[in-house]
Predict the 3D structure of the following.
Amino acid sequence: MSLATIQCCAPIAREPLSEGDAAELATLLKAVADPVRLRLLSMIGSHTGGEACVCDLTDAFELTAPTISHHLKVLRTAGLIDGERRGTWVYYRIVPETVNKLGALFAPLAEPATV
């Protein structure tokens, strides 16, 4: 088999990330790189009504409330979740636009390669 007949794998992206997009995605990836934060994001997204009270989230972990609050703050700072205070509790919801950016990054990886 000659080198001319060997095909390389198909590219996974249409074009490389810009510096700004790479920095933004790195922030998002850092935020979800922690198992607790990834689980929190999953719990909020799958909660009935699309939002979850912090009081519902803390019971699922063997962590203190301040530790859970720290993880929620990291997710919120990254723009992955948003919160609304109602009385003494904060209710969190997913920010779809931001989460979709992560999905768009990995979507080409899920498509079968055409060779």
